Amino acid sequence: MSRHAVFDIGSHTNALLVCEGELALCDLRQVTDLKKGARPDGSLCSEAMARSLDSLFQLWARADALSVPLLNRRVLATAALRKAPNRGAYLQAAQERGIAVQVIAGKEEAALSYAANRALAGNGLYIDLGGGSTELCWPEGRMSLEMGGWHLPESLDAMLQGLNLPPFPGLWAAGGTLCTLAAQKLGLEKFDPQLVQATKLSLEDLKAASIETQPPEQNAARIALALLQRIGLDHLRVTVLGLRHGAMKALTEA
Questions:
Q1: How many CA atoms lie within 13 A of 203 on its CB side?
Q2: DSSP string, 27-63
Q3: DSSP 3-state assignment of 10?
Q4: Which of 124, 135, 140, 254 could tie 170 with a disulfide, CB 3.0–4.6 Å?
Q5: Residue 167 and residue 231 in contact, taking contact as beta carbons nearer than 8 Å
Q6: Same structural domain, 131 and 228
Q7: What's the confidence (pLDDT) of residue 132?
Q8: Cα separation of 34 and 54, whole Å?
Q9: Tell me, what DSSP letter sits at residue 151?
Q10: Which CATH number is 60's domain given?
Q11: What's the domain range around 12?
Q12: What is the pTM of this model?
């Protein structure tokens, strides 16, 4: 059975998912903070790009070690590179190592991420809270908002109040920053996706994180807190399933 690999280059973390059929052989995430130190126009600093590229090369080597055919690999980049005027330097550096990076639109990012969590979220709201954008999805609609762990709008409450959202029975949330907060709540020294999955973050948890942590976790906590208050819920559940899992589903079913 063929092996497939999906790489997710995010604003906060890089991730790799390798599967053989439905069996996950490898599911790794590395904190890179690609968006850290970005200029107001979205240009990425050279140090952050170097961190992210070094992580990408490490993950690529891991896929090599697992004998994933080159044609069965997909490398996706999201908001940080999507908004960066100088993303060409990153893409060229990756291409020189034989890695073709695909910068995807916010709508595709939302669709792929939601595909991995549709059954889990049910009739509730699902969000993917990234470093540069946040995708909101539910059975009847979806939207992409310009806010994330590295981008906190000054008018956050007003932005959320202006959204036309129906009532929801629950909220499931993905994203590296929220997964980090969940792991910290559990006291994990090493990230364990099986333990983090479905961890409950309450209003009190998010209020504490919005004060006691630093960006990007601090901004992510503030966004999640404001969104919970906007829709009238007292907690969310964290899911480790995200873009790479939805992309893997599309890749293996093609």
A1: 9
A2: EEEEE--TTTT--TT-PPPHHHHHHHHHHHHHHHHHH
A3: coil
A4: 124
A5: yes
A6: yes
A7: 87
A8: 11
A9: B
A10: 3.30.420.40
A11: 3-105
A12: 0.89
